[in-house]
Amino acid sequence: MNDLVARLTHRKKGYTLEAPFYTDPEIFAADMEVIFGRHWLFVGVEPDVPEPGDVMVVDIGKNSVAVLRDDDGEIRAFHNVCRHRGARLVHEEKSTVGNLVCRYHSWVYDTTGKLIHAEHMGEDFDKSCHGLKPVHVRSLEGLLFICLAENPPQDFDELERVMAPYLKPHNLRETKVAYQHDLIEPGNWKLTMENNRECYHCGANHPELTVPLFAYGFGFAPEELDETEREHAAQYACMLNDNHRDWEAAGLPSREVDRLDDMVTGFRTERLPLSGDGESHTIDTKRACNKLMGNLTNAKAGGLHFWTQPNSWHHFMGDHAVVFSVLPLGPDRSLLRTKWLVHKDAVEGVDYDLDNLIGVWMATNQQDSDLVGYCQSGVEMDGYTPGPYSPHTEMLVEKFINWYVGRMLSHLAETRAVA
Q1: Fewer CB near the terminus (10 Å): N or C of the chain?
Q2: Rounded distance, CA 21 to CA 272, Å?
Q3: What GO annotations for molecular function exist for this entry (predicted)?
Q4: Predicted confidence (pLDDT) per residue in 15-24, tens digit
């Protein structure tokens, strides 16, 4: 522990982490305990469990969590472990149940987690003492977060206070999952998150993604611009301000809120304009789905970006949404899970073409996975030393790392105090 504290304390501001943070099994274990064991994690959406009895299983390190909608329509989460002899309870990622039945000895739990049937346990056996162990779960306008800690961070209420108005117009609860894609990236989870927190690499690596994006929306070095480029940057700033004014007048909160590294449950949001026809993240920048989300009547609602620490980012357009979660699988492997959401009444082949809907991010995710793999390969080499972040285009990567270092040091300080 002392070595980890020293590495965290002496981390050079504005630089990448030392190699062991991306490669060492012991640091990975600490990440799983502190970051993924004690913080709010994005794991899915309410449309993953649209009806009573629907269950979604999420595996996080050695833990498995069953998220379900109970018979009264409430979202609940439980450790996916039978209280008899510890058998895994739900085996499929998605299923629908009347009750939860253990395949081993047929113990039966209702959708509130209460044990309702257990044969041959004797007269003194108290079923009420053997219900499923609950896991904290919160829905943020349809985005589902869980926390494995006994006492979760209390600032989720502040996150909800700020973000609910931004998300509400898109009405995620009235959507469906049109497609889900799981991609195993060959890198440490922090490399995946660092890659997401900047677009310095986008121009050279993401020909599909950059079609509807304005380059000046993701940072630039003013001193490097020529006179024409400075004029374009000024025009973008004016357009952004005008768009924010118009969107907010129409009931769409849009202006930037950045709390990435000054809250335990760090987050950031902003609605940005889209280029071309300006309707969606598609190759032709036109809407991918004819049925718009929520009560929106104009597809030109920009792209609402929403990031949360430690493991998610999301994009909400007028016609569809794309949500992303990152779950560590090992020091050098991570699961990137992507879901595309459309209006619940949208019909594939009629209201949207699936290939068109998912095309941009399917290509972008694979490109990013390759880049993460290049980084993982590099940090494992003797020649790797921490390198500097761009102060103009990678400032949000620095905020992610600053948040990570702060959270790790806070926990280690608490551990020392108790000891």
Answers
A1: C
A2: 33
A3: 2 iron, 2 sulfur cluster binding; dioxygenase activity; iron ion binding
A4: 999 999 999 9
